[in-house]
Amino acid sequence: MTNTTTALTVAAAVAGAVSAAAVLAPVDAVAQDMEKCYGISLAGENDCANAAGTHSCAGQSTTDYDGGEWKLVPAGTCAAESGSLEPFEGVNPAFAS
User: Fold this and answer.
1) What is the C-alpha end-to-end distance of the chain, expressed in Å?
2) What is the spatial distance between Cα 28 and Cα 71, in angstroms, rounded to a whole number?
């Protein structure tokens, strides 16, 4: 390799690392400002695995407002959504008809 090729390779690697850090930093910041809110998701609209461990993926809930299913919400807003920061049994009474 020539000195020019080596310098360009190093410069490209550094630029790639800086770009990746710039892209990932906002994602981490957003994730830190979110919290799991149980009992607010509609069937099929949960964000990930449920508390009971009966499924492990988003979108697999089968009951509206199930206390074991969660969605990510901005930190500090779960109570305003009528949810709970802890899983609970049954359906969220705030949404019971």
Assistant:
1) 73
2) 17
What predicted TM-score, i.e. pTM, was given to this entire model?
A: 0.65
Q: What is the pLDDT of residues 34-57, one digit of tens each?
A: 999 999 999 999 999 899 888 889
36 vs 48: CA distance, rounded Å = 10
CA atoms of 2 and 71, how far apart (whole Å):
54
Q: For the chain, what is the domain count?
A: 2
Q: Are residues 15 and 54 in the same domain?
A: no
Which residue bears the tokens 């500090």? 76
State how far the Cα of 93 lies from the Cα of 90, in Å rounded to an integer.
8
Q: For residue 6, give every residue at least 6 positions away whose Cβ sits within 8 Å of its Cβ, in sequence order, or none.
A: none
| Whole-number Å distance between alpha carbons of 75 and 86 | 14
Q: Which two tokens stand for residue 66?
A: 């199930």
